[in-house]
Design a protein that fits this description.
Layout lengths: L3 H4 L1 H4 L11 H9 L2 H12 L3 H23 L7 H15 L3 H13 L16 H6 L1 H15 L2 H24 L2 H15 L1 H10 L15 H6 L6 H6 L8 H11 L30 H8 L13
Helix pairs in contact: 4-5, 4-11, 5-6, 5-7, 5-11, 7-9, 7-10, 10-11
Length: 305
């Protein structure tokens, strides 16, 4: 059963179909988004400048999260075969079997924050519990898919794990500092995904109503490469990450009373901007109350997201 938010008349009225397809430029950018950051981080690590490499590795990891996430939803502008290949390559670069993450993530979309939602396990924890649970969270995803995933997914995971273990063994045997660095920093990054990619965007949410958070700070959205437009993504998963800012703008137009809660100025009766109230990811009670009120149906002909 869908949460009421999916059936909200104002949400259903949002025009989103034109945001599904990528232009050629958007496709190229989606595929190469993380490449410069990876190249610089490995070049610095190759010269034993590990401290200087870390900021570039952080951006590479955030960009990789966005790219692979778009890959999970087939929004990279690639065919199915090449999307699987892309995820395999990034499994090596990010040192995690991404076909396992993909299977868990798609189930998360089907039942967000439900009892059997492995991806959502950190959402109900405190911040420090989500941090500590990070390594277990990554391992649990892998074992869950190996136990319950389909045969094709398990084969991909086996290939990815074999390649990752081979790369780790190569790093240890050859003693390449840059490769050891990449393995270590990506393992650390994966241990933080339960906090960054789950807790921060689902903390305190209601699985039966407002099940995800969003963000309207241009600075935070720039630094996180649009990864925090999470409510928008859950409502319209067919929209690629590069088009989420436009989708967020359209949502704000049909839910103006909720705008202050997610960081936008709301116009008053004189059509003058109201003061900013940057509550963004941290307070969703007003938005929940707003969405629970009956709203006018602005389009009775739109498809359900």
């Amino acid at each position: 059963m869908k949460a009421p938010l999916f059936l909200n008349a104002a949400v259903r009225s949002v025009q989103w179909q034109d945001l599904r397809e990528l232009t050629f430029v958007q496709t190229v950018r989606a595929l190469l988004l993380s490449a410069p950051w990876l190249a610089v981080s490995l070049a610095l690590a190759g010269n034993d400048q590990y401290g200087a490499a870390i900021p570039f590795s952080i951006v590479f990891f955030m960009a990789g999260l966005r790219q692979t996430h778009d890959g999970f939803h087939a929004k990279l502008g690639l065919s199915v075969r090449w999307t699987h290949a892309f995820l395999f390559v990034f499994s090596l670069l990010m040192v995690v079997p991404l076909h396992a993450v993909r299977w868990i993530h798609l189930r998360h979309h089907a039942h967000p924050l439900a009892e059997n939602d492995v991806e959502g396990m950190c959402a109900g924890m405190s911040w420090w519990q989500a941090l500590l649970a990070g390594p277990y969270f990554s391992l649990r995803m892998i074992f869950e898919v190996l136990a319950f995933g389909n045969r094709g997914t398990r084969i991909w995971i086996a290939l990815e794990l074999t390649a990752i273990l081979g790369m780790v063994g190569l790093a240890a045997w050859l003693g390449w500092g840059w490769l050891r660095y990449q393995v270590a920093v990506m393992i650390l990054g994966n241990s933080l995904t339960g906090f960054v990619a789950v807790w921060m965007v689902h903390r305190g949410c209601d699985p039966n109503h407002l099940f995800a958070r969003t963000q309207r700070s241009w600075l935070i959205n720039t630094l996180t490469l649009n990864n925090f437009f999470h409510l928008e993504h859950h409502l319209f998963p067919a929209v690629a990450s590069c088009n989420l800012p436009e989708l967020a703008r359209r949502l704000d137009e049909v839910l103006p009373t909720a705008a202050p809660v997610i960081g936008l100025p709301r116009t008053n009766t004189e059509n003058q901007p109201a003061p900013w109230r940057l509550r963004t990811l941290y307070d969703i009670q007003i938005l929940e109350d707003t969405l629970r009120q009956p709203l006018p149906d602005r389009s009775s002909t739109m498809e359900s997201p």
